[in-house]
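Run Zinc ribbon domain-containing protein YjdM through structure prediction, thanks.
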Amino acid sequence: MSDFPACPSCGSVYTYQDGVMLLCPECGHEWQAGEEARQDDGLVVKDAHGTLLHDGDSVTVIKDLKVKGSSLVVKVGTKVKNIRLVDEDHNIDCKIDGIGAMKLKSEFVKKA
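Sure, done. The structure for Zinc ribbon domain-containing protein YjdM is below.
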């Protein structure tokens, strides 16, 4: 068996190392070797495909989204980096290049 620690997110024992990062193939969680498991605040946010999202993840928009109060549209395939999860109806705070600060619903994104 491997000498790698279990995934702090889902507890899987099938973790592996890629460079300096440890990865979980079951939930997609990434963390640095030696990093303490972070204390979650109980907020569980999943993308459109059921993958757990975490603060700092990158996501891709899976549907054209109209920006309320504007003629702008966030196109399908737009990559959003460094998201922040919040406990609201629109549960992702982010900044989209060319548009600015926005809130998105996790059901319209997938983990990149």
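The chain is about 0% helix and 35% strand.
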